[in-house]
Amino acid sequence: MSDVVTVIAPINIAVIKYWGKRDEKLKLPLNDSISGTLDANVMCSKTSVCARPEFKEDRIWLNGAEQSKTILQNCLQKIKDIACDQQSVEKEFLSWNVHICSENNFPTAAGLASSASGYACLVTALAKLYKIKADLSALARIGSGSACRSIYGGFVHWHAGIKPDGSDSFATQVVNTDHWPEMRVLVLVVGDSKKHTSSSIGMKITAKTSALMKYRTEINVPLRVTSMCDAIKQKDFASFAEITMKDSNEFHAVCLSAYPPCVYLNDISHKIINLIHKYNDLFDSPKVAYTFDAGPNACLYLLEKDVPNVVSMIKHVFPSTNPDFIKGLPCNEAKNVEFLNNINFKQENIDLLKYMIYTKIGDGPKVIDNGEHLLNVNGYPLEK
Ligand code: DP6
């Protein structure tokens, strides 16, 4: 049997955003946040780890390139400390160095939260390697805040906590993967070469300079978190959608109120926002919710029954020459597109959207036992 442990882990897309830290080092947030975990069969990180006496140092490879081991040091040390306390493995095993190889199955250019799936994967794999029993969400959080929410499937709530040591800052599941089986997600990847301020730096500037931030974290988010949990539990899509869009808009408004401002949305993002509002206005209650992270790509939450119309509308408004425009799950388009005449929306220039990914809510990290590791028998990355 191989001594390599391999795990796949999902990304998550927040519907109540985490933005701002109360402790930089421990990655403790200023506010609670809530996200949907996306199907790892469509988008995931995969990580293989192994420890051997002959390894000269800890090494980590990410998407084919070796990285500085500083990115894993915090999580690795914490897990080794727990293993030592729990005496879960031999002392000698703890002294061996580790090799880690990790890959995302989605293009990094998609600008999606690969650090969340990456750290959820790393922590789950190391916890298995060192046989520890611990709250993996709190360990993943040390790598990247939002990673703590990728430890569970379904919809997940990250509790900010108030304790200085962070012991009350962890994620819990709001509902499991099967609770709202009709929920779907369309990720619209916007062609954009601009390098945006990283989340960590953006949060720091915003927390330090935005006068609106306090109002968001202390007043608005706590109210929204309660209503969002209720909306999810009751499968109330209209409330879910309204809260999601309002929180995304407020998050970006707060970013704009930083000094200097953090600008993540671009013209195409705003065109998508307008389109979704125009579409929703055709109905009594919203059918689609947009949300944007620290970049211009849109994530649309919607129910399965509305997917054909929404996909046809997007393809109509944002014409594409990409033959592989829709990736992910098999996706039907509307047979009758007459409703498009009711949306007085001009067709945009060609190829403003690079492609879209169609996916759904999925499970948390999974240990892979089919032997398909990323490290070879010598513990080095497989040649591609
Ligand atoms: C906009 O988790 O990437 O996606 O804790 O500094 O690693 P660090 O930040 P990160 O921030 C994610 C911010 C967000 C909103 C969210 O996912 O809640």
UniProtKB/TrEMBL annotation:
<protein>
    <recommendedName>
        <fullName>Diphosphomevalonate decarboxylase</fullName>
        <ecNumber>4.1.1.33</ecNumber>
    </recommendedName>
</protein>
<dbReference type="Pfam" id="PF18376">
    <property type="entry name" value="MDD_C"/>
</dbReference>
<dbReference type="GO" id="GO:0019287">
    <property type="term" value="P:isopentenyl diphosphate biosynthetic process, mevalonate pathway"/>
</dbReference>
<keyword id="KW-0152">Cholesterol biosynthesis</keyword>
<dbReference type="InterPro" id="IPR014721">
    <property type="entry name" value="Ribsml_uS5_D2-typ_fold_subgr"/>
</dbReference>
<feature type="domain" description="Diphosphomevalonate decarboxylase-like N-terminal">
    <location>
        <begin position="9"/>
        <end position="171"/>
    </location>
</feature>
<dbReference type="GO" id="GO:0004163">
    <property type="term" value="F:diphosphomevalonate decarboxylase activity"/>
</dbReference>
<keyword id="KW-0153">Cholesterol metabolism</keyword>
<dbReference type="GO" id="GO:0005829">
    <property type="term" value="C:cytosol"/>
</dbReference>
<keyword id="KW-0752">Steroid biosynthesis</keyword>
<comment type="function">
    <text>Catalyzes the ATP dependent decarboxylation of (R)-5-diphosphomevalonate to form isopentenyl diphosphate (IPP). Functions in the mevalonate (MVA) pathway leading to isopentenyl diphosphate (IPP), a key precursor for the biosynthesis of isoprenoids and sterol synthesis.</text>
</comment>
<dbReference type="InterPro" id="IPR005935">
    <property type="entry name" value="Mev_decarb"/>
</dbReference>
<keyword id="KW-0547">Nucleotide-binding</keyword>
<dbReference type="InterPro" id="IPR029765">
    <property type="entry name" value="Mev_diP_decarb"/>
</dbReference>
<keyword id="KW-0456">Lyase</keyword>
<keyword id="KW-0444">Lipid biosynthesis</keyword>
<keyword id="KW-1207">Sterol metabolism</keyword>
<dbReference type="GO" id="GO:0005524">
    <property type="term" value="F:ATP binding"/>
</dbReference>
<comment type="similarity">
    <text>Belongs to the diphosphomevalonate decarboxylase family.</text>
</comment>
<dbReference type="InterPro" id="IPR020568">
    <property type="entry name" value="Ribosomal_Su5_D2-typ_SF"/>
</dbReference>
<dbReference type="Pfam" id="PF22700">
    <property type="entry name" value="MVD-like_N"/>
</dbReference>
<keyword id="KW-0443">Lipid metabolism</keyword>
<keyword id="KW-0756">Sterol biosynthesis</keyword>
<keyword id="KW-0753">Steroid metabolism</keyword>
<dbReference type="InterPro" id="IPR041431">
    <property type="entry name" value="Mvd1_C"/>
</dbReference>
<dbReference type="InterPro" id="IPR053859">
    <property type="entry name" value="MVD-like_N"/>
</dbReference>
<dbReference type="InterPro" id="IPR036554">
    <property type="entry name" value="GHMP_kinase_C_sf"/>
</dbReference>
<comment type="pathway">
    <text>Steroid biosynthesis; cholesterol biosynthesis.</text>
</comment>
<feature type="domain" description="Mvd1 C-terminal">
    <location>
        <begin position="185"/>
        <end position="368"/>
    </location>
</feature>
<dbReference type="GO" id="GO:0006695">
    <property type="term" value="P:cholesterol biosynthetic process"/>
</dbReference>
<keyword id="KW-0067">ATP-binding</keyword>
